[in-house]
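Please describe what follows:
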Amino acid sequence: MDHFNPDRLLSDERKKFEDPEKFLPELLKTGEIVADLGCGPGYYCRVLKDYASKLYCVDKSLEMIQRARSYCQGDNVVFVNRESGDTLIPSGTVDVVILANSFHDMDRDAVYEEIKRILKKDGRVIVVDWRKDAPFGPPPQKRMCKEDYLSFFKDFKLDREFYVGPYHFGLVLTRI
């Protein structure tokens, strides 16, 4: 799967192995402020907007933001065309950050600091990422496993794991 092709990222084929409508509802509370960092063309945003009082869809690619804007609309949705490590989202205002198949393509240190800045004290990070043994996706050497995330997110604790599909894993990390 070409992970920068918006049409592939929004395809019905993707829903067969990674359908956010199947797992996000049990992880979100209605009325939360959510930031989808590296939102791409809005695959997750479309589900998130139905739960969030405000949803920030952040991506550095103008093409992806334009696709997200056409795919996911709502009065509660704010599109941010910036690096995920410099979102301009007000400090301490976000309940949930979503990192869905995106952290491997980011400046991890900058994004980690930005997450700590924008999250509320009891904020959560929902991670969806490729398993290292998945037959497609980003190059295996770029992928992070559960242990990599737990080591990297040292100011967070593992709250729970959840099933995404055969090629992904899911984590909920809570700020300590």
